[in-house]
Amino acid sequence: MNNNQIEHVKAEHLIEEHADYLFQFAMSKIRNRELALDFVQETFLVCLEKIDQFEGRSSLRTWMTTILNRKIIDHWRKEKRTQGTVDISENENSIFSSHLNYITKDPHQISEEAEAQFFLEFCLDKLPDNFREIVHAKFYDEKNGEEISKEFNITPSNFWVIIHRAKAQLRACMDKKYLS
Amino acid sequence: MKIAHIPCEEAALNVEKSFWQRLTFIDRIKTRWHMFLCKKCSEYEKNSTILHRLLCSSMKKKEIETLTDRDKIRLKQSLKTD
What we know:
Mean pLDDT of chain B: 85
Largest sheet of chain B: none
Helix content of chain A: over 70%
Number of strands of chain B: 0
Oligomer: heterodimer
């Protein structure tokens, strides 16, 4: 086999192993099949290009998901730039009150949802790598503390401390971003 | 009541744990008592609950969408050409 063939086999293997997962992740964020597929495709391209830079600090899937997530955030950034900033009511001087509206399905539905998602993704991206990956493993992969502790080589009590600190950082970031 | 006193850090961790697992009876009492006495932690609990719900709804897999065989072929082709 020449180098090209080896690369091709590697790519096929990556697709078989991770494409469904990445696609579901993208769909959960953007809910547009074609766009999600495009992002997954771009993610594979980047991964194959940068596979040598993968240090193995987390699983390959987590690394790929981080790349995909950044692509989605970039997309939202561009969308926001073209749409202009979203008005924030004067009374809503806390992101939490507006999020509460969103969660309880109260008033401003879709734009509110997109806004909340955008800020959350933005702030998640600002977390330290290990914090972000652990939050992701807990909330998206729905793994339990024990599994995550093993995967990330931390103690179970350390796991809860990381969740607590990650959420504290998310809260601080979202307040700041939403108010600015 | 001194026996029921726990530091803020421990109370905050109990709040986080309580989203995912049932606390022991003693831990529940200690945490509730702490929340009753400490305004800051009580505020933390409120915000943390909202953030928890937001994270859950944001990361929730809405429906199981899978790639079709055609999608996979398209992906493989695109990587081949690039």
